[in-house]
From TrEMBL, chain A:
<dbReference type="GO" id="GO:0015658">
    <property type="term" value="F:branched-chain amino acid transmembrane transporter activity"/>
</dbReference>
<keyword id="KW-0812">Transmembrane</keyword>
<feature type="transmembrane region" description="Helical">
    <location>
        <begin position="121"/>
        <end position="137"/>
    </location>
</feature>
<feature type="transmembrane region" description="Helical">
    <location>
        <begin position="32"/>
        <end position="52"/>
    </location>
</feature>
<keyword id="KW-1003">Cell membrane</keyword>
<dbReference type="GO" id="GO:0005886">
    <property type="term" value="C:plasma membrane"/>
</dbReference>
<dbReference type="Pfam" id="PF02653">
    <property type="entry name" value="BPD_transp_2"/>
</dbReference>
<protein>
    <submittedName>
        <fullName>ABC-type branched-chain amino acid transport system, permease component</fullName>
    </submittedName>
</protein>
<feature type="transmembrane region" description="Helical">
    <location>
        <begin position="157"/>
        <end position="176"/>
    </location>
</feature>
UniProtKB/TrEMBL annotation, chain B:
<dbReference type="GO" id="GO:0015188">
    <property type="term" value="F:L-isoleucine transmembrane transporter activity"/>
</dbReference>
<keyword id="KW-0997">Cell inner membrane</keyword>
<protein>
    <submittedName>
        <fullName>Branched-chain amino acid ABC-type transport system, permease component</fullName>
    </submittedName>
</protein>
<dbReference type="GO" id="GO:1903806">
    <property type="term" value="P:L-isoleucine import across plasma membrane"/>
</dbReference>
<keyword id="KW-0812">Transmembrane</keyword>
<feature type="transmembrane region" description="Helical">
    <location>
        <begin position="6"/>
        <end position="28"/>
    </location>
</feature>
<feature type="transmembrane region" description="Helical">
    <location>
        <begin position="272"/>
        <end position="291"/>
    </location>
</feature>
<keyword id="KW-0472">Membrane</keyword>
<dbReference type="GO" id="GO:0042941">
    <property type="term" value="P:D-alanine transmembrane transport"/>
</dbReference>
Length: 330, 298
């Protein structure tokens, strides 16, 4: 099902603006505790992370595990740049951009194996990449080896997070409705058939990986400047699993799904915090149950704007049905 | 010195090979990347630990305890594997493969942290399951357990390959792994075969856990994570679904783990070497060393 979606850019952006207004009121009038505010920031930055993963795993349909590596490279690049070059807070956009661009460069390289390898083999290559990045950071003295980087300036605040999220949504939205976006979906459905209709598979894959890594890199940069420290252990197995869970929970190939997946999972993880380690038992069980009953994730490949469209259509149809039935009874 | 390293290589290689076969059983037959398999390994470790500690209170016959606790743990892990298959994977038989993978991630997380909560986060020490004797070969002393690990692993592999090649169940397994629909036409109940493959996988994982526990007695709740990744890598390196491939992959990883620390300045670079080799092999031969190149269907 590769149809060009109608560009409801405004329809997607309006909810974000409403949410932003609510956030401003909540923060400036201190209606919300700092811990809740922190959860909101987690939700925002992980939404960016999941949008990035969704580019490759959802729209392109490749089972990639490279996101931990991309996030690590973005986070470390940003942390180094803010420690040595961009020390002022007004330079934060430059820091974010730098983190995103370094991750994007690595993403360009990581797209090469995807030309030839497929399926589980490609999953292993991308997993290998993530674990190589982690192992490399653990042994690199300059970035503090296994201790990581400490005392990073805490530039991130809730406006930056949601500003970046808005930016990420616009990028993904524009990209998916472009020629390349549609060629991604064509490759997902059938690579051979899409080659036959002259889709440039290599170029589409390269761009998808680059955009994906860019977004993930930005989310990593935000995370570092939110926590104020980073260490290689944060970008291992748990990060990979976290990313997968949020993407497939929300739905592959859906912007709304990405945000909903990130939101639900972060809220779940944070609210279950007082269960201690039992929360992972509950979380794992819930994930399994959700997969059994909602096989394609909560949103599948649908968007919120599709739902609005469908509702509108439903009401207009029922109205016409009524008039027809009234006419027939006459 | 060289002989000692060679024995180390064989020991580690055979543990990895066994773990990789156990992973590959389910992977090849059910076509499912089972991320929960590492947790089955973890559960096997804990069951072996508790069973052998209890049994050592009654008797001191080491071999008897070893065999008996292996049997108890195999029974336990088989039950876990069957339940896992019934509850988490069977409803998803016709779903897109990726949802099954996510479901297995969930199950893996549940089991691993259940083990953590029930047994505590403190590292445990496995009692000696193999008599603590050393023997002399050409002037170097070698602990008996290292040789026994290699012998037991090879016996297990030979029994498994006989099972898969000679018995009716083995033929059915190979048929299902090649084509589920065609196997169903021949009157093979693929659900039953898949359940058996889960049981075989669990039993092999338990044997691998017993050998791992004898080699490195200290373990904690996250012991299954690394084993899961390494056996996944070994299975893919050798070629998915091929038992010989899994063995070959296991021994290659064992070799890298033993040789890399001798050559490289920092021992933790061995992961980088292992993944480098893996990526290199997959870029040249994208279906693994012994995997068959599937023709592309249009």
């Amino acid at each position: 099902m590769i149809t060009k979606r109608k560009n409801h850019l405004l329809g997607d952006v309006i909810p974000v603006i409403i949410i932003a207004a609510i956030l401003i009121v909540l923060k400036e009038f201190k209606l919300i505790s700092t811990s809740r505010l922190l959860i909101l920031q987690y939700i925002g930055l992980y939404s960016i992370f999941v949008l990035g993963i969704n580019m490759v795993n959802g729209y392109l349909g490749i089972f990639s595990l490279a996101h931990a590596g991309f996030m690590a490279s973005g986070a470390y690049a940003a942390a180094i740049s803010s420690k040595y070059f961009f020390k002022e807070s007004w330079m934060f956009p430059l820091i974010l951009l730098f983190g995103g661009l370094i991750a994007m460069l690595i993403g360009l390289i990581m797209s090469i194996p995807s030309f030839k390898a497929k399926g589980d083999y490609l999953a292993i290559i991308t997993l290998g990449f993530s674990l190589i990045v982690q192992s490399f950071l653990q042994n690199w003295r300059f970035v503090g080896a296994s201790k990581g980087i400490n005392n990073v300036a805490k530039f991130t605040n809730i406006y930056w997070v949601y500003g970046c999220l808005l930016f990420a949504i616009i990028i993904v939205r524009k990209f998916i409705n472009s020629k390349y976006g549609r060629s991604l979906k064509a490759i997902r459905e059938d690579q051979v058939a899409s080659e036959l209709v002259s889709v440039d598979v290599k170029r589409a894959k390269t761009i998808a990986f680059a955009v994906s890594a860019f977004l993930i890199g930005i989310s990593g940069a935000l995370l570092v400047h939110l926590l104020g420290y980073t260490s290689p252990s944060a970008y291992g197995y748990t990060n990979i699993v976290d990313g997968l869970v949020m993407v497939y929970l929300g739905g592959m190939g859906s912007i709304t799904g990405s945000i909903v997946g990130a939101t639900l999972w972060q809220i779940l993880i944070q609210t279950l915090k007082n269960l201690g380690t039992w929360r992972w038992v509950v979380g794992g069980g819930l994930l399994c149950v959700i997969m059994i009953f909602l096989t394609n994730g909560i949103f599948g490949n649908k968007e919120l704007s599709d739902a609005i469209h469908a509702i509108r259509k439903y009401f207009s149809r029922s109205k016409t049905n009524k008039t027809i039935s009234e006419e027939t009874t006459k | 010195m060289l002989l000692q390293q060679f024995i180390n290589f064989l020991q580690l290689g055979s543990i990895y090979a066994l773990a990789a076969i156990s992973f590959s059983m389910v992977y090849g037959i059910a076509g499912l990347v089972n991320f929960a398999h590492g947790s089955v390994f973890t559960i096997a470790m804990y069951l072996l630990f508790y069973a052998s500690t209890l049994l050592f209170k009654i008797t001191s016959a080491t071999w008897g305890v070893f065999v008996l606790s292996l049997m108890i743990a195999s029974l336990g892990t088989s039950i876990v594997a069957i339940l896992m298959e019934r509850i988490a994977y069977k409803p998803l038989r016709n779903a897109p493969p990726i949802s099954v993978v996510v479901s297995s991630v969930g199950v893996g997380m549940l089991l691993e942290y259940l083990a953590l909560n029930l047994a505590g986060s403190k590292a445990k020490r496995m009692p000696n399951l193999i008599p603590d004797i050393t023997i002399d070969i050409a002037g170097t002393t070698i602990p008996l357990f290292k040789i026994m690990i290699i012998v037991i692993a090879f016996i297990a592999m030979i029994i498994l390959s006989l099972l898969v090649r000679k018995t009716q169940l083995g033929v059915a397994m190979r048929a299902v792994s090649q084509d589920k629909t065609a196997a169903a036409f021949m009157g093979i109940d693929s659900n039953r075969v898949i359940t058996y493959s889960f049981i075989f996988g669990a039993v092999l994982a338990t044997i691998a856990a017993g050998l791992y526990g004898s080699a490195y007695s200290i373990f904690a709740y996250n012991v299954g994570d690394t084993i899961n990744w390494w056996s996944f890598i070994a299975a893919v390196l050798g070629g998915i679904g091929s038992i010989e491939g899994a063995v070959l992959g296991g021994f290659i990883l064992g070799g890298i783990n033993v040789i890399a620390p001798m050559v490289l300045p920092v021992s933790s670079y061995k992961d980088i070497v292992a993944f480098g080799v893996l990526i290199f092999v997959l870029l040249i031969k994208p279906t693994g060393l012994l995997g068959k190149n599937a023709a592309e269907k249009v």
